[in-house]
Amino acid sequence: MNIALIAHDQKKNDLVQFVTAYQEIFKKHKLFATGTTGLRINEATGLSLTRFKSGPLGGDQEIGARIANNQMDAIFFFRDPLTAQPHEPDVTALVRLCDVYAIPLATNMGSAELLIRGLEMGLLEWRNVVKENGEGNEG
Ligand SMILES: O=C(CO)COP(=O)(O)O
């Protein structure tokens, strides 16, 4: 599965902690991240990730483009609900695309626990069916 990892600054420690705790699961998948988040995760865990630009510089949009092209299977996006983001429209657009394409999105530690455990149990295998059928690429 292709998994994107993103965290706002105030949530980066939480995401690093989360990925560290579940790295045995994450290492079985192809990981992507926005710039700074990816660097932090790589430094903490040694996991290799494809890093896009930093969120404020277009990284959220790069991940959004991959969602639109049916190339992302799950998103862990630890958002900071208490701090205004200069690129709020990009954040909203990324969340919107997850809804457009029914891509599982965890925006906090609570839902992330469920998503990672669901992933481990094989509950996201339907994504392979979607991809085999080429769904989500039309239009
Ligand atoms: O801003 C972000 C998500 O909106 C995350 O970007 P960074 O990982 O580069 O900090």
From TrEMBL:
Single GO MF descriptor: methylglyoxal synthase activity
Pfam families (alphabetical): MGS (PF02142)
Keywords (A to Z) from UniProt: Lyase
Keyword Protease: no
Gene3D superfamilies, A to Z: Methylglyoxal synthase-like domain
Family: Belongs to the methylglyoxal synthase family.
This protein's name: Methylglyoxal synthase
Gene that this sequence comes from: mgsA
